[in-house]
Amino acid sequence: MGARRWLYRPAVPNTAVLYGSLALFVSILHNVFLLYYVETFVSVYKIDKVSFWVGEAVFLIWNSFNDPLFGWLSDRAFLSSPQVGSQITSPEVVLKRLAALSRNGPLFALSFLGFWVAWARPSLQFLVCLCLYDGFLTAVDLNHNALLADLAVSAADRTRLNFHCSLFSAVGSLSVFLSYCFWDKEDLRSFRLFCVALAAVSALGFWAVSRLLRQRFESQLRPGTNDAAGLKELGIGHALPPQEQPVTIGQYLRQLSKHKNFMWFASMNLVQVFHCHFNSNFFPLFLEHLLSDNISASAGSLLLGVSYIAPHLNNLYFLTLCRRYGVYQVIRWLFMLKLGLSVAMLLAGADHIYLLCIFIASNRVFTEGTCKLLNLVISDLVDEDFVLNRRRQAASALLFGMVALVTKPGQTFAPLIGTWLLCFYTGYDIFERRPAQHALVGVGVAPEGGPQGAGPAPGTAPLRLGCFYMLVVVPIICALLQLTAWSRFTLHGRKLQGIKTQRQGAQHAPLADVKAI
Protein backbone atom coordinates (compact mmCIF):
# COMPACT_ATOMS: atom_id res chain seq x y z
CA MET A 1 0.00 0.00 0.00
CA GLY A 2 2.90 2.33 0.76
CA ALA A 3 4.29 1.89 -2.73
CA ARG A 4 0.86 2.48 -4.19
CA ARG A 5 0.59 5.79 -2.31
CA TRP A 6 3.95 6.90 -3.74
CA LEU A 7 2.91 5.94 -7.22
CA TYR A 8 -0.21 8.04 -7.00
CA ARG A 9 1.61 11.20 -5.99
CA PRO A 10 3.40 11.83 -9.31
CA ALA A 11 0.01 11.89 -11.03
CA VAL A 12 -1.34 14.80 -8.94
CA PRO A 13 -1.55 18.18 -10.71
CA ASN A 14 1.47 19.76 -8.97
CA THR A 15 3.89 17.21 -10.37
CA ALA A 16 2.24 17.26 -13.80
CA VAL A 17 2.46 21.07 -13.85
CA LEU A 18 6.11 21.03 -12.86
CA TYR A 19 6.90 18.39 -15.47
CA GLY A 20 5.05 20.34 -18.17
CA SER A 21 6.72 23.62 -17.23
CA LEU A 22 10.08 22.21 -18.32
CA ALA A 23 8.72 22.39 -21.89
CA LEU A 24 8.26 26.15 -21.42
CA PHE A 25 11.96 26.74 -20.87
CA VAL A 26 12.85 24.83 -24.04
CA SER A 27 10.11 26.40 -26.13
CA ILE A 28 10.95 30.07 -25.44
CA LEU A 29 14.45 29.53 -26.83
CA HIS A 30 14.03 26.87 -29.50
CA ASN A 31 11.27 28.62 -31.45
CA VAL A 32 13.40 31.76 -31.72
CA PHE A 33 16.38 29.64 -32.77
CA LEU A 34 14.44 27.87 -35.53
CA LEU A 35 13.03 31.10 -36.87
CA TYR A 36 16.17 33.22 -37.00
CA TYR A 37 19.37 31.18 -37.08
CA VAL A 38 19.43 30.65 -40.87
CA GLU A 39 18.48 34.27 -41.53
CA THR A 40 21.14 35.52 -39.10
CA PHE A 41 24.02 33.63 -40.68
CA VAL A 42 22.91 34.16 -44.27
CA SER A 43 21.73 37.79 -44.18
CA VAL A 44 23.64 39.27 -41.23
CA TYR A 45 26.94 37.38 -41.02
CA LYS A 46 27.03 36.74 -44.79
CA ILE A 47 28.17 33.13 -44.57
CA ASP A 48 29.17 31.71 -47.95
CA LYS A 49 27.36 28.81 -49.56
CA VAL A 50 30.20 26.29 -49.20
CA SER A 51 30.63 27.02 -45.48
CA PHE A 52 26.88 26.77 -44.97
CA TRP A 53 26.67 23.38 -46.66
CA VAL A 54 29.80 22.05 -44.92
CA GLY A 55 28.49 23.24 -41.56
CA GLU A 56 25.12 21.62 -42.16
CA ALA A 57 26.82 18.38 -43.26
CA VAL A 58 28.92 18.19 -40.08
CA PHE A 59 25.88 19.16 -38.06
CA LEU A 60 23.94 16.36 -39.74
CA ILE A 61 26.43 13.80 -38.44
CA TRP A 62 26.60 15.24 -34.93
CA ASN A 63 22.85 15.85 -34.78
CA SER A 64 22.12 12.25 -35.70
CA PHE A 65 24.61 10.45 -33.49
CA ASN A 66 24.54 12.48 -30.29
CA ASP A 67 21.03 11.27 -29.43
CA PRO A 68 21.82 7.53 -29.33
CA LEU A 69 25.21 8.31 -27.80
CA PHE A 70 23.71 10.27 -24.91
CA GLY A 71 20.88 7.74 -24.62
CA TRP A 72 23.35 4.86 -24.37
CA LEU A 73 25.47 6.68 -21.79
CA SER A 74 22.31 7.35 -19.81
CA ASP A 75 20.76 3.87 -19.95
CA ARG A 76 23.65 1.44 -20.41
CA ALA A 77 23.71 0.68 -16.68
CA PHE A 78 20.08 -0.40 -16.89
CA LEU A 79 20.71 -2.72 -19.85
CA SER A 80 23.95 -4.16 -18.48
CA SER A 81 22.88 -4.99 -14.92
CA PRO A 82 23.22 -8.78 -14.64
CA GLN A 83 21.99 -9.09 -11.07
CA VAL A 84 18.34 -8.68 -10.15
CA GLY A 85 19.32 -7.08 -6.86
CA SER A 86 21.22 -4.31 -8.59
CA GLN A 87 18.20 -2.94 -10.38
CA ILE A 88 17.58 0.77 -9.99
CA THR A 89 14.19 1.77 -8.66
CA SER A 90 11.83 4.09 -10.51
CA PRO A 91 12.18 7.05 -8.10
CA GLU A 92 15.97 6.78 -8.35
CA VAL A 93 15.72 6.89 -12.14
CA VAL A 94 13.53 9.99 -11.93
CA LEU A 95 16.11 11.66 -9.66
CA LYS A 96 18.85 10.78 -12.16
CA ARG A 97 16.88 12.40 -14.99
CA LEU A 98 16.20 15.54 -12.91
CA ALA A 99 19.87 15.88 -11.95
CA ALA A 100 20.77 15.81 -15.65
CA LEU A 101 18.13 18.45 -16.43
CA SER A 102 19.36 20.77 -13.67
CA ARG A 103 22.89 20.61 -15.15
CA ASN A 104 22.15 20.69 -18.86
CA GLY A 105 19.22 23.14 -18.84
CA PRO A 106 21.28 26.23 -17.91
CA LEU A 107 24.06 25.16 -20.30
CA PHE A 108 21.46 24.85 -23.07
CA ALA A 109 20.34 28.43 -22.37
CA LEU A 110 23.95 29.63 -22.45
CA SER A 111 24.65 27.91 -25.78
CA PHE A 112 21.61 29.69 -27.27
CA LEU A 113 23.35 33.06 -26.80
CA GLY A 114 26.30 32.09 -29.00
CA PHE A 115 24.32 32.62 -32.22
CA TRP A 116 23.50 36.30 -31.92
CA VAL A 117 26.94 37.91 -31.48
CA ALA A 118 29.65 37.58 -34.16
CA TRP A 119 32.63 36.21 -32.22
CA ALA A 120 34.45 34.26 -34.96
CA ARG A 121 34.49 33.71 -38.70
CA PRO A 122 30.94 32.91 -39.84
CA SER A 123 31.91 29.40 -40.99
CA LEU A 124 33.51 28.49 -37.66
CA GLN A 125 30.83 30.13 -35.53
CA PHE A 126 28.07 28.43 -37.52
CA LEU A 127 29.56 24.99 -36.93
CA VAL A 128 30.48 25.46 -33.27
CA CYS A 129 27.19 27.11 -32.30
CA LEU A 130 25.05 24.49 -34.02
CA CYS A 131 26.90 21.56 -32.45
CA LEU A 132 27.01 23.05 -28.94
CA TYR A 133 23.38 24.10 -29.03
CA ASP A 134 22.15 20.77 -30.35
CA GLY A 135 24.28 18.81 -27.88
CA PHE A 136 22.72 20.50 -24.86
CA LEU A 137 19.27 20.48 -26.45
CA THR A 138 19.62 16.74 -26.97
CA ALA A 139 20.61 16.19 -23.34
CA VAL A 140 17.58 18.19 -22.18
CA ASP A 141 15.09 16.61 -24.60
CA LEU A 142 16.20 13.04 -23.97
CA ASN A 143 15.84 13.31 -20.21
CA HIS A 144 12.58 15.22 -20.40
CA ASN A 145 11.03 12.83 -22.92
CA ALA A 146 12.31 9.77 -21.03
CA LEU A 147 10.50 11.02 -17.93
CA LEU A 148 7.24 10.67 -19.85
CA ALA A 149 7.91 6.94 -20.25
CA ASP A 150 9.34 6.63 -16.72
CA LEU A 151 6.46 8.25 -14.88
CA ALA A 152 3.51 6.48 -16.46
CA VAL A 153 2.46 3.37 -18.36
CA SER A 154 -1.25 4.03 -18.89
CA ALA A 155 -2.29 6.09 -21.90
CA ALA A 156 -4.43 8.34 -19.69
CA ASP A 157 -1.51 9.30 -17.43
CA ARG A 158 0.85 9.89 -20.34
CA THR A 159 -1.78 11.97 -22.11
CA ARG A 160 -2.19 14.10 -18.98
CA LEU A 161 1.54 14.75 -18.78
CA ASN A 162 1.67 15.57 -22.49
CA PHE A 163 -1.31 17.90 -22.02
CA HIS A 164 0.67 20.05 -19.58
CA CYS A 165 3.69 20.04 -21.91
CA SER A 166 1.51 21.38 -24.74
CA LEU A 167 0.00 24.02 -22.50
CA PHE A 168 3.37 25.35 -21.38
CA SER A 169 4.84 25.07 -24.88
CA ALA A 170 2.02 27.32 -26.08
CA VAL A 171 2.97 29.89 -23.45
CA GLY A 172 6.62 29.57 -24.48
CA SER A 173 5.70 30.29 -28.09
CA LEU A 174 4.78 33.83 -27.09
CA SER A 175 8.51 34.52 -27.44
CA VAL A 176 7.95 34.42 -31.22
CA PHE A 177 5.40 37.24 -30.97
CA LEU A 178 7.85 39.32 -28.97
CA SER A 179 10.85 38.46 -31.14
CA TYR A 180 9.21 40.01 -34.21
CA CYS A 181 9.15 43.35 -32.36
CA PHE A 182 12.90 43.20 -31.67
CA TRP A 183 14.19 41.60 -34.86
CA ASP A 184 16.03 43.93 -37.21
CA LYS A 185 18.77 42.34 -39.28
CA GLU A 186 20.34 45.76 -39.85
CA ASP A 187 20.83 46.30 -36.10
CA LEU A 188 20.74 43.32 -33.73
CA ARG A 189 21.37 45.19 -30.45
CA SER A 190 17.76 45.09 -29.24
CA PHE A 191 17.34 41.50 -30.41
CA ARG A 192 20.48 40.45 -28.52
CA LEU A 193 19.20 41.95 -25.27
CA PHE A 194 15.90 40.16 -25.85
CA CYS A 195 17.75 36.86 -26.30
CA VAL A 196 19.77 37.42 -23.11
CA ALA A 197 16.51 37.93 -21.20
CA LEU A 198 15.03 34.74 -22.67
CA ALA A 199 18.16 32.75 -21.81
CA ALA A 200 18.14 34.03 -18.22
CA VAL A 201 14.49 33.03 -17.75
CA SER A 202 15.18 29.59 -19.23
CA ALA A 203 18.30 28.90 -17.14
CA LEU A 204 16.66 29.96 -13.88
CA GLY A 205 13.54 28.01 -14.77
CA PHE A 206 15.41 24.76 -15.38
CA TRP A 207 17.33 25.14 -12.14
CA ALA A 208 14.28 26.01 -10.02
CA VAL A 209 11.83 23.45 -11.43
CA SER A 210 14.38 20.61 -11.42
CA ARG A 211 15.15 21.45 -7.79
CA LEU A 212 11.47 21.47 -6.82
CA LEU A 213 10.81 18.14 -8.52
CA ARG A 214 13.93 16.65 -7.01
CA GLN A 215 12.88 17.72 -3.51
CA ARG A 216 9.46 16.21 -4.12
CA PHE A 217 10.85 12.84 -5.15
CA GLU A 218 13.57 12.81 -2.51
CA SER A 219 10.91 13.26 0.15
CA GLN A 220 9.14 10.25 -1.31
CA LEU A 221 12.32 8.18 -1.07
CA ARG A 222 12.27 8.68 2.70
CA PRO A 223 8.77 7.50 3.65
CA GLY A 224 7.77 5.25 6.50
CA THR A 225 8.82 1.65 6.87
CA ASN A 226 5.95 0.31 4.79
CA ASP A 227 6.69 2.74 1.97
CA ALA A 228 10.37 1.88 2.03
CA ALA A 229 9.54 -1.79 1.79
CA GLY A 230 7.23 -1.04 -1.13
CA LEU A 231 9.90 0.93 -2.97
CA LYS A 232 12.20 -2.07 -2.86
CA GLU A 233 9.65 -3.89 -4.97
CA LEU A 234 9.69 -1.34 -7.78
CA GLY A 235 11.96 -3.59 -9.86
CA ILE A 236 10.81 -5.95 -12.56
CA GLY A 237 8.90 -9.02 -11.55
CA HIS A 238 8.95 -12.45 -13.10
CA ALA A 239 5.88 -12.50 -15.33
CA LEU A 240 8.34 -12.54 -18.24
CA PRO A 241 11.61 -14.49 -18.06
CA PRO A 242 14.32 -11.82 -17.61
CA GLN A 243 17.53 -11.69 -19.58
CA GLU A 244 20.45 -13.03 -17.57
CA GLN A 245 23.28 -11.49 -19.61
CA PRO A 246 24.15 -7.82 -20.06
CA VAL A 247 23.03 -6.32 -23.37
CA THR A 248 25.79 -4.89 -25.55
CA ILE A 249 25.23 -2.06 -28.00
CA GLY A 250 25.58 -4.50 -30.90
CA GLN A 251 22.93 -6.79 -29.46
CA TYR A 252 20.65 -3.84 -28.81
CA LEU A 253 20.96 -2.64 -32.41
CA ARG A 254 20.19 -6.12 -33.73
CA GLN A 255 17.13 -6.28 -31.53
CA LEU A 256 16.00 -2.87 -32.70
CA SER A 257 16.47 -3.76 -36.37
CA LYS A 258 13.92 -6.56 -35.90
CA HIS A 259 11.44 -4.19 -34.27
CA LYS A 260 9.21 -3.56 -37.29
CA ASN A 261 6.97 -0.96 -35.69
CA PHE A 262 10.04 1.02 -34.70
CA MET A 263 11.32 0.97 -38.28
CA TRP A 264 8.00 2.11 -39.79
CA PHE A 265 7.58 4.80 -37.16
CA ALA A 266 11.11 6.08 -37.72
CA SER A 267 10.49 6.26 -41.48
CA MET A 268 7.33 8.28 -40.96
CA ASN A 269 8.96 10.52 -38.36
CA LEU A 270 11.94 11.28 -40.63
CA VAL A 271 9.54 12.89 -43.09
CA GLN A 272 7.74 14.64 -40.25
CA VAL A 273 10.93 16.19 -38.87
CA PHE A 274 11.88 17.34 -42.35
CA HIS A 275 8.49 18.97 -42.92
CA CYS A 276 8.41 20.68 -39.51
CA HIS A 277 11.82 22.26 -40.00
CA PHE A 278 11.09 23.12 -43.63
CA ASN A 279 8.09 25.12 -42.42
CA SER A 280 10.11 26.84 -39.69
CA ASN A 281 13.14 27.67 -41.85
CA PHE A 282 11.18 29.06 -44.80
CA PHE A 283 8.21 30.64 -43.04
CA PRO A 284 9.74 34.17 -43.20
CA LEU A 285 10.52 33.62 -46.90
CA PHE A 286 6.92 32.63 -47.66
CA LEU A 287 5.64 35.67 -45.78
CA GLU A 288 7.99 37.98 -47.67
CA HIS A 289 7.46 36.71 -51.20
CA LEU A 290 3.86 35.48 -51.08
CA LEU A 291 2.13 37.91 -48.73
CA SER A 292 4.26 41.00 -48.04
CA ASP A 293 2.67 43.02 -50.86
CA ASN A 294 -0.84 42.21 -49.67
CA ILE A 295 -0.78 42.24 -45.85
CA SER A 296 0.57 44.69 -43.31
CA ALA A 297 3.62 44.07 -41.12
CA SER A 298 1.36 43.73 -38.06
CA ALA A 299 -0.75 41.12 -39.87
CA GLY A 300 2.44 39.25 -40.76
CA SER A 301 3.53 39.36 -37.13
CA LEU A 302 0.14 38.04 -36.03
CA LEU A 303 0.25 35.23 -38.59
CA LEU A 304 3.75 34.31 -37.48
CA GLY A 305 2.82 34.25 -33.80
CA VAL A 306 -0.40 32.32 -34.36
CA SER A 307 1.43 29.68 -36.38
CA TYR A 308 3.76 29.05 -33.43
CA ILE A 309 1.21 29.19 -30.60
CA ALA A 310 -1.80 27.53 -32.23
CA PRO A 311 -0.14 24.07 -32.62
CA HIS A 312 0.26 23.80 -28.85
CA LEU A 313 -3.26 25.01 -28.09
CA ASN A 314 -4.70 22.84 -30.84
CA ASN A 315 -2.82 19.90 -29.39
CA LEU A 316 -4.93 20.17 -26.25
CA TYR A 317 -7.89 19.24 -28.43
CA PHE A 318 -5.92 16.56 -30.25
CA LEU A 319 -5.07 14.95 -26.91
CA THR A 320 -8.77 14.85 -26.08
CA LEU A 321 -9.35 13.04 -29.37
CA CYS A 322 -6.49 10.68 -28.51
CA ARG A 323 -8.24 9.62 -25.32
CA ARG A 324 -11.34 8.76 -27.33
CA TYR A 325 -10.00 7.35 -30.61
CA GLY A 326 -6.36 6.54 -29.92
CA VAL A 327 -3.15 8.28 -30.95
CA TYR A 328 -2.73 6.21 -34.12
CA GLN A 329 -6.09 7.25 -35.57
CA VAL A 330 -5.67 10.94 -34.74
CA ILE A 331 -2.24 11.06 -36.41
CA ARG A 332 -3.67 9.33 -39.48
CA TRP A 333 -6.44 11.93 -39.69
CA LEU A 334 -3.88 14.74 -39.46
CA PHE A 335 -1.91 13.30 -42.37
CA MET A 336 -5.07 13.08 -44.46
CA LEU A 337 -6.02 16.63 -43.51
CA LYS A 338 -2.58 17.91 -44.51
CA LEU A 339 -2.88 16.18 -47.87
CA GLY A 340 -6.41 17.47 -48.49
CA LEU A 341 -5.61 21.09 -47.60
CA SER A 342 -2.47 21.10 -49.76
CA VAL A 343 -4.25 19.70 -52.82
CA ALA A 344 -7.07 22.22 -52.36
CA MET A 345 -4.59 25.12 -52.13
CA LEU A 346 -2.74 23.89 -55.22
CA LEU A 347 -6.01 23.86 -57.18
CA ALA A 348 -7.02 27.29 -55.86
CA GLY A 349 -3.75 28.94 -56.91
CA ALA A 350 -1.56 31.65 -55.42
CA ASP A 351 -3.89 34.60 -56.05
CA HIS A 352 -6.33 33.93 -53.20
CA ILE A 353 -4.55 35.89 -50.46
CA TYR A 354 -6.88 35.04 -47.59
CA LEU A 355 -6.86 31.35 -48.47
CA LEU A 356 -3.07 31.56 -48.68
CA CYS A 357 -2.85 33.09 -45.19
CA ILE A 358 -5.09 30.38 -43.77
CA PHE A 359 -3.14 27.64 -45.51
CA ILE A 360 0.29 28.92 -44.42
CA ALA A 361 -0.88 29.05 -40.80
CA SER A 362 -2.87 25.78 -40.86
CA ASN A 363 -0.07 23.88 -42.61
CA ARG A 364 2.25 24.69 -39.74
CA VAL A 365 -0.43 24.18 -37.07
CA PHE A 366 -1.34 20.65 -38.17
CA THR A 367 2.25 19.64 -38.95
CA GLU A 368 3.54 20.81 -35.57
CA GLY A 369 0.45 19.36 -33.89
CA THR A 370 1.39 15.95 -35.21
CA CYS A 371 4.91 16.32 -33.80
CA LYS A 372 3.51 16.97 -30.33
CA LEU A 373 1.73 13.60 -30.34
CA LEU A 374 4.70 11.50 -31.40
CA ASN A 375 6.27 11.24 -27.94
CA LEU A 376 3.20 9.25 -26.90
CA VAL A 377 3.88 6.80 -29.73
CA ILE A 378 7.57 6.51 -28.78
CA SER A 379 6.53 5.78 -25.18
CA ASP A 380 4.36 2.95 -26.52
CA LEU A 381 7.36 1.69 -28.50
CA VAL A 382 9.34 1.67 -25.23
CA ASP A 383 6.68 -0.67 -23.82
CA GLU A 384 6.77 -2.91 -26.89
CA ASP A 385 10.58 -3.02 -26.84
CA PHE A 386 10.47 -4.01 -23.17
CA VAL A 387 7.99 -6.83 -23.81
CA LEU A 388 9.46 -8.15 -27.08
CA ASN A 389 13.01 -8.32 -25.71
CA ARG A 390 12.03 -9.29 -22.16
CA ARG A 391 14.14 -6.59 -20.60
CA ARG A 392 14.66 -6.19 -16.89
CA GLN A 393 14.22 -2.44 -17.22
CA ALA A 394 13.03 -0.33 -20.13
CA ALA A 395 15.71 1.85 -21.76
CA SER A 396 13.52 4.89 -22.36
CA ALA A 397 16.20 7.49 -23.10
CA LEU A 398 18.05 5.11 -25.40
CA LEU A 399 14.97 4.37 -27.50
CA PHE A 400 14.19 8.09 -27.79
CA GLY A 401 17.81 8.52 -28.88
CA MET A 402 17.58 5.79 -31.50
CA VAL A 403 14.46 7.39 -32.95
CA ALA A 404 16.40 10.64 -33.21
CA LEU A 405 19.33 8.86 -34.90
CA VAL A 406 17.07 7.95 -37.80
CA THR A 407 14.91 11.08 -37.88
CA LYS A 408 17.21 14.00 -37.00
CA PRO A 409 18.76 14.11 -40.51
CA GLY A 410 15.44 15.60 -41.61
CA GLN A 411 16.34 18.71 -39.62
CA THR A 412 19.46 19.19 -41.74
CA PHE A 413 17.87 18.17 -45.02
CA ALA A 414 15.16 20.84 -44.64
CA PRO A 415 17.32 23.97 -45.17
CA LEU A 416 19.60 22.21 -47.67
CA ILE A 417 16.85 20.86 -49.89
CA GLY A 418 14.78 24.01 -49.43
CA THR A 419 17.54 26.39 -50.54
CA TRP A 420 18.37 24.12 -53.48
CA LEU A 421 14.72 23.97 -54.58
CA LEU A 422 14.41 27.71 -54.22
CA CYS A 423 17.42 28.30 -56.47
CA PHE A 424 16.49 25.63 -59.00
CA TYR A 425 12.84 26.55 -59.45
CA THR A 426 12.92 30.31 -58.92
CA GLY A 427 16.42 31.36 -59.90
CA TYR A 428 16.85 33.04 -56.51
CA ASP A 429 20.08 32.16 -54.67
CA ILE A 430 19.88 33.45 -51.11
CA PHE A 431 23.66 33.16 -50.76
CA GLU A 432 24.75 35.08 -53.86
CA ARG A 433 21.84 37.55 -53.66
CA ARG A 434 21.31 37.30 -57.40
CA PRO A 435 19.15 35.09 -59.62
CA ALA A 436 20.76 31.96 -60.98
CA GLN A 437 20.71 31.80 -64.73
CA HIS A 438 18.51 29.45 -66.67
CA ALA A 439 16.50 28.34 -63.64
CA LEU A 440 13.01 27.31 -64.61
CA VAL A 441 9.84 28.29 -62.82
CA GLY A 442 6.74 26.50 -63.97
CA VAL A 443 6.68 27.16 -67.70
CA GLY A 444 8.70 30.36 -67.51
CA VAL A 445 12.35 31.26 -67.12
CA ALA A 446 13.77 33.19 -64.20
CA PRO A 447 15.21 36.60 -65.06
CA GLU A 448 18.89 36.65 -65.79
CA GLY A 449 21.63 38.96 -64.64
CA GLY A 450 21.05 41.58 -61.99
CA PRO A 451 23.55 43.44 -59.88
CA GLN A 452 25.71 41.61 -57.33
CA GLY A 453 24.06 41.66 -53.90
CA ALA A 454 20.53 42.16 -55.25
CA GLY A 455 18.02 39.37 -55.76
CA PRO A 456 14.50 39.51 -57.18
CA ALA A 457 12.21 41.89 -55.40
CA PRO A 458 9.46 40.43 -53.23
CA GLY A 459 6.44 39.63 -55.32
CA THR A 460 8.37 39.06 -58.56
CA ALA A 461 6.19 36.68 -60.57
CA PRO A 462 8.65 33.77 -61.10
CA LEU A 463 9.88 33.96 -57.51
CA ARG A 464 6.39 34.19 -56.09
CA LEU A 465 5.15 31.28 -58.20
CA GLY A 466 8.16 29.17 -57.27
CA CYS A 467 7.64 29.85 -53.55
CA PHE A 468 3.97 28.93 -53.90
CA TYR A 469 4.78 25.57 -55.47
CA MET A 470 7.36 24.90 -52.75
CA LEU A 471 4.73 25.73 -50.16
CA VAL A 472 2.07 23.32 -51.45
CA VAL A 473 3.98 20.51 -53.19
CA VAL A 474 6.29 19.69 -50.27
CA PRO A 475 3.40 18.88 -47.87
CA ILE A 476 1.65 16.82 -50.56
CA ILE A 477 4.73 14.63 -51.05
CA CYS A 478 5.33 14.41 -47.29
CA ALA A 479 1.73 13.42 -46.57
CA LEU A 480 1.74 10.66 -49.21
CA LEU A 481 4.98 9.18 -47.85
CA GLN A 482 3.73 9.36 -44.27
CA LEU A 483 0.38 7.74 -44.98
CA THR A 484 2.19 4.88 -46.70
CA ALA A 485 4.52 4.27 -43.75
CA TRP A 486 1.82 4.81 -41.12
CA SER A 487 -0.45 2.21 -42.72
CA ARG A 488 2.21 -0.42 -41.92
CA PHE A 489 2.45 0.56 -38.23
CA THR A 490 0.54 -2.01 -36.14
CA LEU A 491 1.05 -0.85 -32.54
CA HIS A 492 -2.48 0.37 -31.93
CA GLY A 493 -5.87 -0.95 -30.92
CA ARG A 494 -5.94 -4.40 -29.38
CA LYS A 495 -2.26 -5.04 -29.99
CA LEU A 496 -1.30 -1.93 -28.03
CA GLN A 497 -3.60 -2.89 -25.17
CA GLY A 498 -2.04 -6.35 -25.12
CA ILE A 499 1.46 -4.87 -24.95
CA LYS A 500 0.48 -2.62 -22.05
CA THR A 501 -1.12 -5.53 -20.23
CA GLN A 502 2.07 -7.58 -20.58
CA ARG A 503 4.18 -4.56 -19.62
CA GLN A 504 2.26 -4.07 -16.41
CA GLY A 505 2.07 -7.80 -15.77
CA ALA A 506 5.86 -8.01 -15.94
CA GLN A 507 6.03 -5.77 -12.89
CA HIS A 508 4.69 -6.06 -9.41
CA ALA A 509 1.10 -5.01 -9.01
CA PRO A 510 1.77 -1.53 -7.54
CA LEU A 511 3.52 -0.44 -10.74
CA ALA A 512 0.29 0.28 -12.59
CA ASP A 513 1.03 3.95 -13.19
CA VAL A 514 4.79 4.41 -12.92
CA LYS A 515 7.28 2.06 -14.47
CA ALA A 516 10.91 1.39 -13.74
CA ILE A 517 13.59 1.59 -16.39
- Helix/sheet category: mainly alpha
Number of strands: 4
CATH fold call: Growth Hormone, Chain: A
Q: Give the number of helices.
A: 18
Overall tally of structural domains: 1
CATH superfamily placement: MFS general substrate transporter like domains
What proportion of the residues is helical, as a percent range?
Answer: over 70%
Radius of gyration: 24 Å
CATH class: Mainly Alpha
Span between termini: 21 Å
Low-confidence stretches: 1-13, 81-88, 224-244, 435-459, 507-517
Strand content: under 5%
Give the name of the CATH architecture: Up-down Bundle
Described by strand count, sense and barrel closure, the largest sheet is:
2 strands, antiparallel
The strands making up the biggest β-sheet line up spatially as 1-2
Mean pLDDT: 77
Order of helical and strand elements: HHHHHHHHHHHHHHHHEEEEHH
**Per the principal axes of the C-alpha atoms, what is the gross shape?**
globular
Membrane topology: Multi-pass membrane protein
Transmembrane segments: 16-38, 124-142, 163-183, 189-209, 262-283, 295-318, 339-361, 468-486
Protein name: Major facilitator superfamily domain containing 13A
Subcellular location: Membrane
